[in-house]
Amino acid sequence: MTSCCPAPEAAAGAALCRIEDIPDGGSLTAAIGARPVILLRRGQAVWAYLNRCPHFSVTLDAAHGAVLTYDAQVLMCAHHSALFRFEDGLCIEGPCQGAALDPQPLRVDAGRVYAADSSQ
């Protein structure tokens, strides 16, 4: 089980973070513009999802900003204990089983993670 702290706020077009800022098998919270997101990492693969549970549209993180992940495979909603897969955001267990998180497109360049629509 891992949890992580928020990343510093990125300026428009700036990198969200360095890939190594996201713990391998863990998470990092960030913002793409005004959208709060959760970044997940397994090895060199990185995914981003809107920080909103499809169950009741509450944030996935706990009040202090921690996002729980397990076995580098799933993240857990702090409010409903729903489990979501890293690779596609699909809820595999919990009250919103079968629903999915809203993916946010990313690109990784030279070890830095960017929103896909940002310029370098």
From TrEMBL:
Pfam families: Rieske. It comes from the Bacteria. InterPro entries: Rieske_2Fe-2S, Rieske_2Fe-2S_sf. Keywords: 2Fe-2S, Iron, Iron-sulfur, Metal-binding. Residues 14-115 form the Rieske domain. One of its GO terms (molecular function) is metal ion binding. PANTHER family: PTHR40261, RIESKE DOMAIN-CONTAINING PROTEIN (PTHR40261:SF1). This is Rieske (2Fe-2S) protein. It comes from Alcaligenes xylosoxydans xylosoxydans.
